[in-house]
Amino acid sequence: MSGLTKCGKCGGGMAISGSTDGRVRISCVRARDAGVCDHKRSYYLDRVEAVVAEAFVAVLSQKDVMQKAIGTAIKKRREDISGEAKAYSRAEGGMGKSEGPACNNRAASGC
Ligand SMILES: [Zn+2]
């Protein structure tokens, strides 16, 4: 969960702020360290993780949402591959023009 949880009030990161009865608590770093956020409440990390896990499973069980997400990911990946292939072709074409000595005697060298 590190780096993934954000304060609902200021958008700052949430970090471990202590523990109670062996359970880790997290709170807004901006409230805790800088005092620039007034969201002082802390949350049990295990409870936050449980809520996120429940929401994740709920999203995964929605076939139409997953199909759309997978379709979007495949489209993005194809665009990335196409862009990489074009960049490779440009680089490969540029190498042929600028690298290597000029061939002055094709018959003797086979170049
Ligand atoms: Zn905050």
TrEMBL record:
It comes from Rhodomicrobium udaipurense. Residues 87-111 are annotated as: Disordered. Residues 2-55 form the Recombinase zinc beta ribbon domain. This is Zinc ribbon domain-containing protein. It comes from the Bacteria. InterPro entries: Zn_ribbon_recom_dom (IPR025827). Pfam families: Zn_ribbon_recom.
